[in-house]
What we know:
Blueprint: E1 4-9, H1 13-24, H2 26-33, E2 37-43, H3 47-54, E3 59-61, H4 64-69, E4 75-78, H5 85-95, E5 99-102, H6 105-122, E6 126-127, H7 138-145, E7 151-157, H8 160-172, H9 176-186, H10 194-197, H11 200-214, E8 224-225, H12 233-241, E9 244-255, E10 260-271, E11 283-290, E12 294-301, H13 305-322, E13 353-363, H14 368-378, E14 383-388, E15 397-404, E16 407-408, H15 409-420, E17 430-434
Helix pairs in contact: 1-13, 5-6, 6-11, 8-9, 14-15
GO molecular function: homoserine dehydrogenase activity; NADP binding
Domain ACT: 357-433
Binding site for L-homoserine: 190
Amino acid sequence: MKPIQVGLLGIGTVGSGTFNVLTRNQEEIRRRAGRGIEITMVADLNVERAREIVGDQARVVADAREIIANPEIDIVIELIGGYGIARALVLEAINAGKHVVTANKALLAVHGTEIFAAASARGVMVAFEAAVAGGIPIIKALREGLTANQVQWVAGIINGTTNFILSEMRDKGLDFDVVLKEAQRLGYAEADPTFDIEGVDAAHKATLMSALAFGIPVQFDKAHVEGITKLSAVDIRYAEQLGYRIKLLGIAKRRDDVGGIELRVHPTLVPAKRLIANVEGAMNAVMVQGDAVGTTLYYGKGAGSEPTASAVIADLVDITRLHTADPDHRVPHLAFQAGELRDTPVLPIDQVRTAFYLRLRVADQKGVLSAITSILAASDISIDAVLQRESNDGENQTDVIILTHETAEGAMRAALAQMQALPTVLAPIVSLRKEELA
């Protein structure tokens, strides 16, 4: 049987890994897919570099549209990234009747609804396992492996850069700015790390997971996004003393009590005994809670040339197996049949319910703690634990650390405003969310 012919748009880190793994494991992949899969065309602006990678095994062009126009190409892999030209090329490939594989989480999180609708109308597949958590097969788990379940929540460490930074801050007691520079020196952070450290990259991925978990359209614009730039080493240390670790989590949670979905990314205290709290360095992990299966955990490398290539090639194999199937009998793009997606609203942050960690710098005098706890009690916010540090010799101020039970975000914000107005609260209050993940 004639091999499936693939066109590759972009042969950078992931593209070169995809080409190399597909070449190295060609026979094993053929045995799994039922026929050969070959990258026969590559488009990259750096034509010379691309030719150095592929040699004479594929034709190299500078114009990606030459691949889309080639009637011999069955599948287009988009590894260009970004929202602009990538969107145009993916839609053109779909309109030309090509199946698409992409690792572009930003593109799908923002324009996924348009892209999936176009693919369904044209009867082609868009596969995106590599768009979330690199080599971890979390898309397949949500879309197929957990089909029997009503997913209750998904929570993941889905950005390796921020996890590396937080791990280093905890291990070495260093502040964010110092560790960021080290992460850039080691290649874990980009020269412009904004998308990573501000939580945007994780929010793109959490948006896709929320759609797969709950059968809703992708709605990146509704996600609440906070990064790690304001985190202090002192809060990581206090969290440790209280039995918690701080991780940047992407969280999607079903809220049947109000008929909505929580979709948020932010630093989160997690009990140190949880497996996900012990995911260190640049590794990724995703927890999924299903009503039938209970809690499952998926762990592995979330980025890198060959780990991400593993996911890209898995998509190529899936499409090769299914491309001759009736489109109505293929696995739906977002796990649920296209006509079964629901308009369940993503809740505003004020309606989110979670527990909190609070750190207050206060005057070391009588009545301070009583005034703070009175405000919390009046707001119907119950306290789980209190840690009051003794002031150093010669100081007249100290830190009070409070862990609360679960409450509405809006209630906590109102209480924080009242506490901040107290004359004995001497600095901006640090507020972090806490999840038990049990």
